[in-house]
Amino acid sequence: MEHAPGWLVNSLIYLSAAVLVVPLSKALGLGSIIGYLVAGIAIGPWGLKLVTNVDDILHFAEFGVVLMLFLVGLELEPKRLWSLRRPIFGWGSAQVLGCALVLFLAGWAAGAGWRVALVAALGLALSSTAIALQVFGERNLLLTPSGQAGFSILLFQDVAAIPILALLPLLAVVHDAGAGLSGFERALEGAKIVAVIAAIIVGGRLALRPLLRWIARSNTPEIFTATSLLLVVAIAALMQFIGLSMALGAFLAGVLLAESEYRRELETDIEPFKGLLLGLFFIAVGMSIDFGVLIANPGLMALVVIAFMVLKFGVIYGLAKAMEVPYQQRPVFTLLLAQGGEFAFVVFQAAGPDVLPPAVASFLIGAVALSMLLSPLLLVAIDKWLIPHYSVHHATALEEISEPQSAKVVICGFGRYGQIIGRLLTAQDVSITVLDHDPDTIESLREFGIRVFYGDATRLDLLRTAGAATARVIVVAVDDMEQSLKIVDLAREHFPNAKLVVRARNVTHLYQLQDRKVEFIEREVFESSLRSARSVLESLGWPAHEAREDTMRFRTRNIELMQETYPHYKGDRAKLIAVAKKGRQQFQEQMARERAERKQRSGSDWDRERAEEERLP
Asked: Which of 122, 150, 516, 579 has a C-alpha 20 to 30 A away from that of 394?
């Protein structure tokens, strides 16, 4: 290995550390993020010293955050982003300014100079976009009130990083009057920023779609993937050139392409790179923790980390109540925003010795990295001890199911999906036992006279009490995929005589259920979407019977195509995409032939006739 290139050796080290540590961390219930952080500590300067160029790796790994923000932007159409403008700038500014003010006053009261206290407060007020969005995504919380609120605040923090960085040279003017920019230079910088952002917006509207269309016509998937990465890299480089956040530029590009027909293809191509680079980012954060500073002042470091997280926790929890975030989601929401963030590294490193002494900057960077290491551990503690106690404390008269039940059907999860099933069964006088662990849902349903038992269906003892051992059918209607699969595994192992009817969130979830030999699986929005599509065809003038036939043909072909792609979903993704594309193309060609035959048989073009009728007064 002594003659191997440096990048090859480093790649071997990173991948080996991740493969060894991350699965072990997940097996222990600590999550993947802690695994990556521990792997970074193990191979870094304070571990085995296998890697020492931490700063270079951290800068490269930040591209994982850039890709993540691009994918988040792809999920937000401009109209939806516009609808979030108030929480982004309202609650986002309240969080940043509120936390910065409290931290500044605390630092000043502790004896720090006002410049040091101000820079430290502004840097510590920011949170980790990478960790927060990763956790929100893993827990399926992005579309919940806490996820939307957290995303709005995190997005504002990315925007706020720009004026914070612009403020740093002004703080140094007192020591070096020549360090500031002239009025003309500031105007030039402002014009450059406006020009680049305008170029991204105009280019996204006018140039990107034709370019992607042209690349797609070449039928070379690897070039489309290269184009996707080039797009993100180019925009990130442009934003860095003008001194703005790379992640913010990538997010803006994603929003501009959110309405594009290539949105899903872009997501598919970039997702694997995002996951790998985010993992590398967390490894780099673990390597960047300066244990020398920690060892030199362990008491002070512990005090600073605890103090700034507790102060932020108090401010953010108050905001969570004001934003009406559901109380079950507040602990996780508050903790994810109370930790330090990756942009704090940039702020403290950019401050320079005239504003922030090197020893102080190193100390604060260590405190931020330590908070990012502690947060996933605290999440585990919250999940195991705080949230169960918290939910029971807030949910009046909610006790876990304790009396054995003996209904024919056990329904796990009683949201909108499970309620429809339950109401139909009850109308047919079929006895049911319902389990749900959301106190708000249970209290709301009890107001309507619906009996729902409080309990977590992933617990074997509660499933037994609910009567799963004697039930003829177990309905798994929970919306969390991991919980759904866990319930299915428990039922398969302990209640083999019960038939399983399971709600699938998406095609991947459906494939995972098929791996478990579940016989009755329904995608949650598939049938309703088909019915809406049929209504659209009828509204456009299709005869009702033809709209129904075309919709049913599509349904049949979609199910067939799912079975054709099923063998490839775990392995060759390129093969899966190729099979799916070929299947869609064949179906479109078949439908085109049938329309032509139908038109020829009828001897009339009803679509043209209807269009002419609509033009008549």
From this structure: 150
- Check residue 573 and give its pLDDT: 67
Q: What is the pTM of this model?
A: 0.54
At residue 245 the predicted structure's pLDDT band, cuts being 50, 70 and 90, is low
Q: Give a yes or no: residue 168 inside a domain.
A: yes
Answer yes or no: do 126 and 216 share one domain.
yes
The more confident residue out of 21 and 611 is: 21
User: How far, in Å, CA of 393 to CA of 266, rounded?
Assistant: 45
- Confirm if 258 and 76 have CB atoms less than 8 A apart: yes
Residue 209 near residue 158, CB atoms below 8 Å: no
Domain hosting 588: range is 539-615
pLDDT for 379-435, tens place per residue?
877 777 665 554 444 444 455 566 778 888 999 988 888 888 988 888 888 888 888
Gap between the Cα atoms of 548 and 533, Å rounded: 10
Residues 249 and 93: their CA atoms lie apart, in Å, by 20
pLDDT tens-digit series, residues 51-93: 777 666 666 666 767 777 777 777 666 776 677 778 888 888 8
Let me know whether 451 and 545 are in one domain: no
User: Quick one: 47 and 104 in the same domain?
Assistant: yes
**Measured between alpha carbons, how far is 387 from 158 in angstroms, rounded to an integer?**
30
Q: Which of 366, 393, 420 is the last residue of a domain?
A: 393
Instruction: Report pLDDT for 474.
Output: 94
Cite the DSSP H helix spans in 242-357: 246-256, 263-288, 291-296, 298-322, 330-338, 342-351
37 and 102 within one domain: yes
367-317-383 Cα angle (round to 5): 75
- Determine phi and psi for 400, rounding to 5 degrees: -65, 150
Closest CA to 483 of 418, 399, 403: 418
Q: Is residue 530 part of a domain?
A: no
Residue 610's CB: how many other CB atoms inside 10 A? 13
534 found inside a domain: no
Beta strand 409-412 with 473-476: parallel, antiparallel or unpaired?
parallel
**Three-state DSSP class for 126?**
coil
Count of domains forming the chain: 3
Closest CA to 439 of 390, 384, 380, 502: 390
Contact (Cβ atoms closer than 8 angstroms) between residue 245 and residue 162: yes
Task: State whether 450 and 561 are in the same domain.
Answer: no
Do 495 and 603 lie in a common domain?
no
Q: How far apart are CA 39 and CA 26, in angstroms?
A: 13
Task: List CB contacts of 193: < 8 A, sequence separation 6 or more.
Answer: 242, 243, 244
Which value, to the nearest 10 degrees, does the dihedral of the CA atoms of residues 517, 520, 526, 531 take?
Answer: 150
The whole-angstrom separation of Cα 157 and Cα 503 is 37
